[in-house]
Amino acid sequence: MHTPFPSSLDGDAVQQLTEWAIMHGQAFRKTDGTARHAPFSLSPLPISQDELERLTRVIPLISRVIDRVSENHHFLQDALGPAASADPFFGRLLEMHQQLHANPGEVRRIPLLVMRTDFMQDQVFGPKVIEFNGIAAGMAPFGQRVAELHRFVQQQWPGLVPDLNKHQLVENRGMHLLARAMANAAIEVNRIHGGEGKPTFLMVVQGNEDNVYDQHLLAQEIQSCGVRTIRRTFDQLADQLYTGDNHRLMLEGEGAIDLVYLRAGYQYSDYFSLSRRDAICCHTLCQTRLFIEKHAVAVNATIGQQLATSKAMQLILTNMSPEEYASFGLTVEEANQIKSVLAEMRQVSPASIKHFIENEDINNWVLKNQGEGGGHCIFGSDIIGKLHTLPQADHAAWAVMQKLTPETRRALVIRDAKAHLVDELVSEIGLFSVMFNGNPATDLDGYAGYLIRSKPAHEGEGGVHSGQGVLDSLQLLD
């Protein structure tokens, strides 16, 4: 429960902190055009140096596997067919992927894998992967900003918030590292095409969304690297894209595009347009995404990358033997490093449902479908009800996953310009990584900063944007 924070953090200090957040873009747009600050913690998550190093070592291995899986057309089609038949949107993605690769010579995009791998630190089993995010894997700018905010508080008001002075804060350069990697990719594609004109970055966004400042922060950082940035929705692009010389992707009124970054496309509604009367739902805007991948342009996320970071693929990778990882270029030792951070997952089937109901404690599990973003997990007694009513045809779209139990901490959070004390706060650790055309795209072997999202332990939805989550940072245990 949130309770008023009865300390020296008075209204003036809270106001200055929220104004700092809005001034630095750590905010959401309101419907009236003004901004509200994104909620944040003032009690960073403690982590040991060993655990942090372990996670940053395993992230490049995970990125390498996902990158190679995403480029293996036949493996994706064979492995994900059952889930596609059980989930309409997932099925559409696999259908688009098949259509794209029906003529391999037409697949000209250069893959830029930008992903965020979300972990939770279990009290018994250590850090475990919650999910992979390979499309619209945003909020790296917010992650960097809240770490800067924590350092600002340390310097501006020493001793005001004891939790901020317990341990050394972990630097977070996520926005800078991602922007630099993306800018380098755009510059390289521009060079391949002869270096004419300024390298250009296209961000595909949702219409009228309020989570825009995180996107603009990234765009500004990319601009500082000498790359021009443009924003469009799929609906706009459907009438504006065309093909230039040497399979260049061209945008009407803007010229050649060197990099396409999707902050939309992870749900059916991103492809739906009231102004279009498609015989098949969302056909035109889905074809726009396919059109992009048939051009010589860097793309994140490719359809293959979105499939490779799905819950269905996470289930497959979790249950692979270390030896099977060799087909993706990993040694047994490297595979074991990955498997050590993968939480147990089980496919839903008539037999597994029977076993689960008769033999398992439902409180140790989470039921998940293929949806991206928040709101796709079922907990506790609701799991049994869902399994009883789930049609067998839909089983392949669902999986049960080990529920993680992290340490809780008493923490100070700022939400809606008010300070609260949360008695039991838990955190997710999101680590960013970037691969360009099969190679690590940062000086840190592809690692590109972190995002910490914390929430009250009793809350099921921990999104900062749509749930009860707050932005946070890391501090090193002594």
UniProtKB/TrEMBL annotation:
UniProt keyword Nucleotide-binding present: yes
Q: Does the keyword Magnesium apply?
A: yes
One Pfam entry name: GSH_synth_ATP
Q: Which UniProt keywords apply?
A: ATP-binding, Glutathione biosynthesis, Ligase, Magnesium, Metal-binding, Nucleotide-binding
The Swiss-Prot or TrEMBL record lists the needed cofactor(s) as: Mg(2+)
Q: Which family does it belong to?
A: Belongs to the eukaryotic GSH synthase family.
| Protein name in UniProt | glutathione synthase
Originating organism: Shewanella corallii
